[in-house]
Amino acid sequence: MEIKNVYEELGQENYAAVKDRFCGNEKLLEKFVVKFLQDPTYKNLEGSVSEEDRRGIEMNAHTLKGVAGNLGFCILQSVCADLVDCIRSGNDEQIPELFDRVKSTYTNIIDVIKKLD
């Protein structure tokens, strides 16, 4: 699978814009997408959720939102933004549901990235 196919399989219609963000260099984009597999932010977020650490949840969800946005993973960016907003507005009862959405979206992205040649 090629990098463009990753974005197609994920339903991201912004591949051209993401590629432009990397100066049109598909190999550079692919390098950073593959590095996403080792990014610790999701695991940190998962730990913060299990520990009910509101500050950690906010910080890690916000960081993951930014990384996802930079790589053009708009769906993950959006669900992370919802989780950040939930924390900031004090709606703690929504954390489990929103984290489940983050987890599902993140897992899907990881599974697709692993298909790269």
How would you describe this protein?
The mean pLDDT is 96. α5 runs antiparallel to α6 and α6 (74-89) packs antiparallel against α7 (95-113). The protein contains seven helices and no strands. It is elongated. It has 117 residues and is mostly helical.
Descriptive terms for the model:
117 residues, 7 helices, elongated, 0% strand, mainly alpha
User: Helix segment count?
Assistant: 7
Secondary-structure element sequence? Answer: HHHHHHH
Unreliable spans are: none
Q: How large is the radius of gyration?
A: 14 Å
Mean pLDDT: 96
What sort of overall outline do the alpha carbons produce when their principal axes are compared?
Answer: elongated
Number of separate strands:
0
Q: Largest sheet at a glance?
A: none
The level of helicity is: over 70%
Question: Helices and strands: which structural class?
Answer: mainly alpha
State the separation between the terminal residues, measured CA to CA. 5 Å
How large is the share of residues in beta strands? under 5%
Which helices and strands, and how do they pair?
Blueprint: H1 3-9, H2 15-21, H3 26-35, H4 41-50, H5 54-71, H6 74-89, H7 95-113
Helix pairs in contact: 4-5, 5-6, 6-7
Offer a quick outline of the entry.
By secondary structure, the chain is mainly alpha-helical. The protein has helices spanning 3-9, 15-21, 26-35, 41-50, 54-71, 74-89, 95-113.
